[in-house]
Amino acid sequence: MSEMASNVPIGNGTLPGGQVGQSWASSALQSNLILTFGAASLVTLFMWFFISYQTSPLKKYPGPALAGWTNLWRLGQVLSGEYAPRMKKLHEKYGPIVRIGPNLLDLDFPELTRTIYATDPKWKKSNFYQNSSSIIDGKITYHMFSEVDNALHARMKRPVVRHYSVPSVLAMEPLMDKVINDLLGHLQTRYVDTKKECEFGEWLGYYAWDFLGIVTFSTKFGFMEKGCDFDGTLAIADKSIDYLGICGQMPWMDYWLDKNP
């Protein structure tokens, strides 16, 4: 009888009762180890956040409480589409310096624009800009906008900087006048004469892209002529700006979403 009680039917055979107990004990031990590891990880993560928050040199600056702990607060503001008005309200509440991230301040000092955006090595661009880089032949390639190294950026800019000088820009004015006249002509014939409703914001986009085309490639892209985003370029550009705005708040996301090999 004792021998029968110590065996448990399993399929067409039997499994000794002692092995059942050992299997259960092993599973329980594994579960306990997983729970212990998970709890230890959470405690470690909390302590890391807590110590970082308490020792940060930015702690003295005002701002939303959650923003001092994580960039997720700022990411949420961007996703909501209320980032700009939210920043305005925060400056009205806290003043010209607002902490909007564990390591990020938003400054309302227009007089510092030239200082911060100068090429002085001590004012290095953040990784926000690197998200706009491209992958060429399997390698991340940076351009003038995405390159954060000041020396490399200066080297990239050197061949073209003269084209953005005041005299060069003024020389483009006749081209701008021509494209503006084209815009006014399209608005007149398509909307004023026909009394149709005009999505003026869209037409400003068509104008901007056609102007860029004529000053860069000596020919317009044709958005005003066709009266629409005929090849999807503007839609892609809009999505790219949205992507850069979102991933720019937590730049490491770009390596998972776009640059992940």
TrEMBL record:
Task: Write out the coiled-coil annotation as residue ranges.
Answer: none
Q: Which residues cross the membrane?
A: 33-51
Q: Which GO MF terms does the UniProt record name?
A: heme binding; iron ion binding; monooxygenase activity; oxidoreductase activity, acting on paired donors, with incorporation or reduction of molecular oxygen
This protein's record includes keyword Secreted: no
Among the record's GO biological process terms, what is one? antibiotic biosynthetic process
Entry's SUPFAM superfamilies? Cytochrome P450
Query: Which pathway is recorded for this entry?
Result: Antibiotic biosynthesis
Cofactor(s) for this UniProt protein: heme
Q: Which InterPro entries match?
A: Cyt_P450 (IPR001128), Cyt_P450_sf (IPR036396), Cytochrome_P450_monoxygenase (IPR050121)
Superkingdom to which the source organism belongs: Eukaryota
Would I find Oxidoreductase among this entry's keywords? no
Which keywords belong to this entry?
Antibiotic biosynthesis, Heme, Iron, Membrane, Metal-binding, Transmembrane, Transmembrane helix
Q: What does the similarity note say?
A: Belongs to the cytochrome P450 family.
What is this protein's name? Uncharacterized protein
